[in-house]
Amino acid sequence: MKKVSILGVLVGSVTDVSTSLILGLPFGIYALSKVDLVHTPKEQLQSAIAAAMHGNATLYWAQLFVGLLCSVLGGFVAASIAKRMELLNGALSSFLCVGLGVFTVIAGKSFDPIIVQVLLLISSPLMGLAGGYLRLLTVRSTPRLST
Prior knowledge:
Layout: H1 6-33, H2 45-55, H3 57-82, H4 86-92, H5 95-106, H6 114-141
Helix pairs in contact: 1-2, 1-3, 3-4, 3-6, 4-6, 5-6
């Protein structure tokens, strides 16, 4: 029996990234509203938005929290589709998020300190694992009808 569900991992990974983008959009819009768009040069706009995001600790931590919850959701979805090896499939659902994070670090596009970047890269698979664990708990606690 295969341990990894390619479909589950792919769908869970897309769920993680897409819900992070969708639910993170209001945070980005709020940060954008704090930037003087008229007087900020176009090439400095991304840095200005990042500075506005990092300048508001509540906003920054809320965005991180939502992103981590999305990784839990992605892990849960992956484990639900896989219907086996829930922890493994949940953790693997973070591959797209981790890949994007590594690309961001290598490309120098991240505005976070390196220690925060490393912690975020580690936390994504852990949150996916947590999603797989939640799925495992729901499977174990659901009474089964015998036929």
